[in-house]
């Protein structure tokens, strides 16, 4: 999983730089604008079914083809509806023929997301296949864009080529899983049962996104763009660190889900190992970054961004809380107790918003950092309480 994200990031960053330099500002801005709409809508294609699928495949590996057929068919239905709505809105609101073509090409990513089955391999704990998928897709996108996009005049080729390059791997994976389209809609009763759980997981992700980005928006209402810029540096650094741990959580989710019903002792042991990994990363990686943040920010961004150091250090303490939260919250999701995690996210988000409104007008980005820290302290308290309440302690044999 780590290799998949590293390789994918390297190809994506290279592609980003190539497009920015090749298309120039105006054409690149058009592509970015179109993709921003589509990437937002991708959340509504998923509806938490990816995480749900990982958990269920881990528990019932013999049903993987059924899960793939049912979930992919339903996601294709959602993607089709969203595609029609997005294209209708584009054609009605934009008189520019070129922008319509750019948006059409970008919108194909809705179907790529629907067809994606990396989650099924994660559920089977075949993480090398995730690496194959990510590496192949991002490499093809880079190669085809490099071959067909040579300047601003190739704007109309950019999004179609980028999207079409992403179809190969999902189609090959669907063949491997013996995908059978569900066209009679009788499977919707089964999907309804899936959604009862997956929508809770989806809401956790949505509220987490709002919670992790809303403080920047609120700060912009009270303070200068310069201060918002400083705080954004600190906030994005914390968010990037958290994202790395989320990748680890997704890799461990199948093992936790598979062992919960069969062996609580092994489940608790796996959660404990996850906690040890988090502790080790805190001591060996994140604490040094927090301590030496002044030097790191000065070297990477320049001394003008040094005001970001204090809020970063305050939020760094909150990051440590996140690292200790994830093993327990991942365990609760694996055990089917995702509603408890949703309660925690809602409580933390509410506290963060209230504290930001109260502290930001006077203390600015320092108040925002303190709000984040307090919200994460509440999160770890609530999630540990929920874990101890709902997860049975292992009884020695």
Tell me the count of domains: 2
What's the Cα radius of gyration?
Answer: 22 Å
What structural category do the secondary elements indicate?
A: mainly alpha
Ends distance: 35 Å
Which term fits the overall shape? globular
Helix content: over 70%
Q: State the helix count.
A: 15
Total strands: the figure is 0
Low-pLDDT stretches:
none
Give the biggest sheet. none
Average of pLDDT: 85
The arrangement of helices and strands along the chain is HHHHHHHHHHHHHHH
Strand content of the residues, in percent?
under 5%
What is the strand and helix layout of this fold?
Elements: H1 2-46, H2 49-59, H3 64-93, H4 97-107, H5 109-115, H6 118-123, H7 127-148, H8 155-164, H9 168-176, H10 188-222, H11 225-260, H12 264-291, H13 293-301, H14 309-334, H15 338-390
Helix pairs in contact: 1-3, 1-4, 1-5, 1-7, 2-3, 2-10, 2-11, 3-4, 3-5, 4-8, 7-8, 10-11, 10-15, 11-12, 11-14, 12-14, 14-15
Structure notes:
The chain has 397 residues and is an all-alpha fold. The chain folds into 2 domains: 2-183, no CATH class; 195-390, no CATH class. It is built from 15 helices and no strands.
């Amino acid at each position: 999983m780590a290799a998949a994200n590293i390789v994918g990031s390297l190809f994506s960053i290279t592609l980003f730089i190539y497009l920015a330099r090749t298309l120039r500002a105006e054409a690149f801005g058009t592509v970015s604008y179109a993709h921003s709409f589509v990437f937002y809508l991708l959340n509504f294609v998923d509806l938490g079914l990816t995480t749900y699928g990982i958990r269920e495949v881990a528990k019932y590996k013999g049903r993987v083809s059924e899960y793939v057929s049912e979930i992919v068919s339903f996601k294709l239905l959602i993607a089709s509806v969203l595609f029609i709505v997005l294209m209708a809105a584009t054609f009605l609101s934009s008189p520019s023929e070129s922008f319509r073509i750019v948006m059409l090409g970008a919108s194909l990513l809705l179907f790529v997301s629907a067809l994606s089955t990396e989650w099924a391999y994660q559920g089977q704990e075949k993480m090398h296949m995730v690496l194959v998928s990510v590496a192949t897709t991002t490499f093809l996108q880079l190669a085809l864009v490099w071959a067909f996009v040579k300047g601003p005049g190739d704007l109309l080729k950019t999004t179609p080529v980028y999207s079409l390059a992403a179809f190969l791997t999902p189609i090959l994976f669907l063949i491997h899983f013996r995908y059978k389209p569900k066209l009679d809609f009788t499977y919707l009763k089964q999907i309804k049962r899936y959604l009862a759980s997956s929508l809770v997981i989806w809401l956790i992700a949505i509220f987490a996104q709002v919670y992790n980005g809303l403080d920047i928006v609120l700060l912009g209402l009270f303070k200068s763009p310069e201060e918002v810029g400083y705080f954004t540096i600190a906030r994005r650094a914390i968010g990037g660190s958290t994202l790395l741990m989320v990748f680890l959580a997704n890799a461990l989710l199948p093992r936790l889900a598979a062992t919960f019903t069969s062996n609580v002792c092994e489940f608790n042991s796996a959660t404990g190992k996850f906690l040890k990994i988090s502790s080790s990363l805190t001591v060996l990686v994140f604490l040094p970054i927090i301590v030496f943040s002044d030097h790191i920010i000065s070297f990477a961004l320049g001394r003008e961004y040094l005001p970001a150091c204090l809020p970063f250090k305050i939020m760094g303490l909150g990051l440590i809380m996140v690292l200790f939260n994830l093993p327990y919250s991942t365990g609760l999701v694996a055990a089917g107790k995702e509603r408890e995690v949703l309660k925690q996210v809602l409580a933390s988000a509410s506290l963060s918003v209230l504290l930001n409104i109260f502290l930001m007008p006077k203390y600015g980005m320092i108040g925002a950092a303190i709000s984040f820290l307090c919200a994460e302290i509440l999160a770890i308290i609530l999630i540990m309480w929920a874990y101890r309440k709902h997860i049975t302690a292992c009884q020695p044999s």
